[in-house]
Amino acid sequence: MRISLWIIFLIGLLFIPFPFVFVNAISIGDAITIDEKLEPSSLGSGYEFLKTTQFEFNNTSLCPTANCKVNFNDQQSNYLSLSDPDSLNDIGIMGSIQLVDKDSFGSFGPKKEKLYEGISILATCAITDIQENGKNTKYICSEGTLSFTRNVNLSSDDYKIVNATFETPSDHYVLQAVK
Fold this sequence. Notes:
Blueprint lengths: L1 H12 L11 E4 L2 E7 L1 E2 L6 E2 L5 E4 L11 E3 L7 E4 L2 H4 L4 E8 L1 H4 L4 H8 E7 L4 E5 L2 E6 L2 E7 L5 E13 L3 E7 L1
Parallel strand pairs: 1-5
Antiparallel strand pairs: 1-2, 2-14, 3-4, 4-7, 6-8, 7-8, 8-9, 9-12, 10-11, 11-13, 12-13, 13-14
């Protein structure tokens, strides 16, 4: 039985894209972890989060029901981006998302629902080190701030960034923050 499980595991490894494996998830609660492959911005410099990014909300005032979903369908008002680290010496993120919470806002009309679901995101994290190895560059930040602010009443969840990295050319972004 153990041998067959190892064989299945090893066969499964054949289908994982190497050399990088990305989680494509953002977990939000008392601590935040972002582990994401970004794509070059369609607007020019910088990078964008994939529209398939999954957000997980746990123990946060922005989503008290823990039953929230991020809607990236409205392309004009929902985006997350990382500026070009070389131009700003920062690997923070900024953007706006729609946090759909039918348990809390399901009785609202569509316009009021959209107003209450709007969240602005701002993270600033100054680069403290750059590691270069051939064509690979890793930007490192060890201290910064991250805020999720509800657009309607400006209530926010604020976090301290304890570690953030951005690697090129893989465009891999990792951020860890705590309350």
